[in-house]
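Narrative summary of target 7.
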Amino acid sequence: MNKKRISKVFKQISLPYALTTSPSDIKYFTGLDAEGVLLLNPSKSFLFLSPLYPYRAEYIKKLDEFYKLKIKKIAVEPSKISLKLVSEIKKKIRCQIFPVDFLFSKVRAIKEKSEIEKIAKSQEISKDILRKLKIKTQDSEADVSRKLIKKALSLADGLSFEPIVAFGKNSFFPHHKSSNAKFKKKFALIDFGVKKDGYCSDLTQMFGLSNMNRRLKEAYRVLRKAVEILCLNIKEGAVISGAVQVASNFLEKMGFSKNILHSFGHGIGLDIHEWPSISLKEKGKFQNGMVFTIEPGLYFEGFGGVRIEDVFVLWKGKVIPVSEWRKV
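Modeled conformation, tokenized:
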């Protein structure tokens, strides 16, 4: 158990216990890959697992022992516990459950140096794979996706998510599913990431820019500027929605208000999508050590879309691509 990380949970609450069933939370606090019930306490924590797991430690207990506990109050992060388990806890343990938004997510959002190092390595691998990617005229989206999957399994531990490979007008859909559509010297949007040492990467690049029409080329140029504007407004203590608003206002001023379909990014770490959301709705503040994607996109029905994405870290007051973190 990582007691330093656990202590950060209880700085947010005045309750004696906090519970999560998220496998990535379990990994974060214990270092183990498992599905179970993690019960945290400032002095003594327990992980309740099925006996099918090979793990043995003083803090690991059988799953059925969880329901024999005699505790009165538990804090939970609503998105990390099922309604079924909540019902069982109330019925069998008869304790009060207190929902606390982002209870564990806020702790995990501030990355330690070792975590940033792992994310940086993961992102470097993804960048190297896309840098060397060759798309042939007769390649289909599915062909390119298979190439990426093969590389991810060869150079990393696998994928952080299913690759998005979208040719031409298919790039209008941010979550397009790879099809048998051929490249045929069109342009391509590729959203791709690997997982290395448990940590995710996320990268979106455009291929065949010269094959785009004038409107898409202009949109791509404007997006690059929007990324610069957002980075300039990211400072420790700045409200996230406020920084995003400045970049969003710029896109609207340039005439693209109707072409924005999603947020500007998200936190990243053990999970591909973590708190915070880099969006107009996010009330949280940027803090030193946060690692997040910046991925604005502009989409034009019938023609396609453009998106730019990289992973950044806020470190010592500066926003830098995480792959360049070691140089700072």
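Residues 3-109 form a domain with the Creatine Amidinohydrolase; Chain A, domain 1 fold (CATH 3.40.350.10).
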